[in-house]
UniProtKB/TrEMBL annotation:
<dbReference type="GO" id="GO:0016887">
    <property type="term" value="F:ATP hydrolysis activity"/>
</dbReference>
<dbReference type="InterPro" id="IPR041627">
    <property type="entry name" value="AAA_lid_6"/>
</dbReference>
<dbReference type="InterPro" id="IPR000641">
    <property type="entry name" value="CbxX/CfxQ"/>
</dbReference>
<dbReference type="Pfam" id="PF17866">
    <property type="entry name" value="AAA_lid_6"/>
</dbReference>
<dbReference type="InterPro" id="IPR050773">
    <property type="entry name" value="CbxX/CfxQ_RuBisCO_ESX"/>
</dbReference>
<dbReference type="InterPro" id="IPR027417">
    <property type="entry name" value="P-loop_NTPase"/>
</dbReference>
<protein>
    <submittedName>
        <fullName>Stage V sporulation protein K</fullName>
    </submittedName>
</protein>
<dbReference type="InterPro" id="IPR003959">
    <property type="entry name" value="ATPase_AAA_core"/>
</dbReference>
<dbReference type="InterPro" id="IPR003593">
    <property type="entry name" value="AAA+_ATPase"/>
</dbReference>
<comment type="similarity">
    <text>Belongs to the CbxX/CfxQ family.</text>
</comment>
<keyword id="KW-0067">ATP-binding</keyword>
<feature type="domain" description="AAA+ ATPase">
    <location>
        <begin position="92"/>
        <end position="228"/>
    </location>
</feature>
<keyword id="KW-0547">Nucleotide-binding</keyword>
<dbReference type="GO" id="GO:0005524">
    <property type="term" value="F:ATP binding"/>
</dbReference>
<dbReference type="Pfam" id="PF00004">
    <property type="entry name" value="AAA"/>
</dbReference>
Length: 318
């Protein structure tokens, strides 16, 4: 088409048009910030501390225990900032009470806590000394104090873990268990900078024990409840156990174990179920049953010797 008489040629218009600069506004790249406390700790902690936390994070369940350690790490970090600003530091007491049924991870958590406390600089060694009443209580006057002091010295730099701690109060006023408690109480004050004591046991018994000793709750300000595992968590624990032993559960074996755990949890609802310990015993028994079963196979394949089948899981009818 020809340009109209009133309109200049296109090339003339282009020459007279103002020069336009196109400006493109780019959105700033968004950095994904950690959404949870555990992510914040593990992304900001030094490598050795993060590695210790990874070991804790691999444990199935135990959310309260994990949350506690993340809070302690956060407090230590903020204390450094407070110190930089010349503010008072928040001093914490880390003696604890672990309450819960057997097999809920109390000893395992205590051992990992020791490692984390060492990496965070709270403990110099981080080792765990696990004891019970018989290790602390002597047979004559003075013997208990001697035994208790020796065990405390072994635990310096780490954690003294006293299982079924409520048994120290079972013998009454004249029992030497009270002497062990008194000796421990003194140790908490004498070695407060490089020593942590953890009292552990069944929930009801530990609550009664703490009520009988009014001075103990203030000396053990951290109390953790270890809940029974759900059946789903127990199945995950079973799978982790067999994988660690280089075995595997067939689909049928997994479902048979799940059904059994559901039934046994209902049957033992009012009694103490040993949780992960029960699963570990069941896996070890199944491995023995599998070995007997494979004795009839001339040349078992790799798949044969690795796989646990439903018939390997056998329980009594009761």
């Amino acid at each position: 088409m020809k340009p109209s008489g009133n309109q200049p040629p296109a090339d003339t218009m282009a020459e007279k048009a103002p020069h336009r600069i196109q400006v493109v506004f780019r959105q700033p790249e968004r950095v994904k910030l950690p959404e949870t406390l555990s992510e914040k700790v593990r992304t900001t902690a030094p490598g050795n501390v993060a590695a210790a936390f990874d070991e804790l994070e691999k444990l199935i369940g135990l959310q309260e225990a994990k949350k506690l350690m993340y809070e302690i790490h956060a407090l230590l970090r903020i204390n450094k900032e407070r110190e930089r600003h010349g503010l008072k530091l928040e001093k914490q007491v880390y003696h604890m009470v672990f309450k819960g049924n057997p097999g809920t991870g109390k000893t395992t958590v205590a051992r990992i806590f020791g490692k984390i406390f060492r990496e965070m600089g709270i403990l110099s060694k981080g080792h765990l000394i696990e004891v019970e009443r018989a290790d602390l209580v002597g047979e004559f006057i003075g013997h208990t104090a001697q035994k208790t002091r020796e065990l405390v010295k072994k635990a310096i730099g780490g954690i003294l873990f006293i299982d079924e701690a409520y048994s120290l109060a079972r013998g009454g006023e004249k029992d030497f268990g009270k002497e062990a408690i008194d000796c421990l109480t003194k140790a908490l004050e004498d070695y407060s900078n490089d020593f942590i004591c953890i009292l552990a046991g069944y929930t009801d018994e530990m609550d009664a024990f703490l009520e009988l000793n009014p001075g103990l709750p203030s000396r053990y300000p951290i109390q953790l409840q270890f809940a029974d595992y759900t059946v789903d968590e127990l199945i995950k624990i079973a799978e982790t156990m067999v994988e660690g032993k280089e075995y595997r559960l067939s689909t049928g074996a997994r479902e048979k174990l799940r059904l059994h755990l559901n039934r046994i949890r209902l049957d033992l609802f009012e009694t103490n179920f040993s949780n992960a310990r029960y699963v570990r015993n069941a896996i070890e028994q199944a491995i023995r049953k599998q070995a007997v079963r494979l004795m009839t196979v001339a040349e078992p394949t790799k798949d044969d010797v690795m796989t646990l089948l439903p018939e390997d899981f056998v329980w009594s009818a009761s």
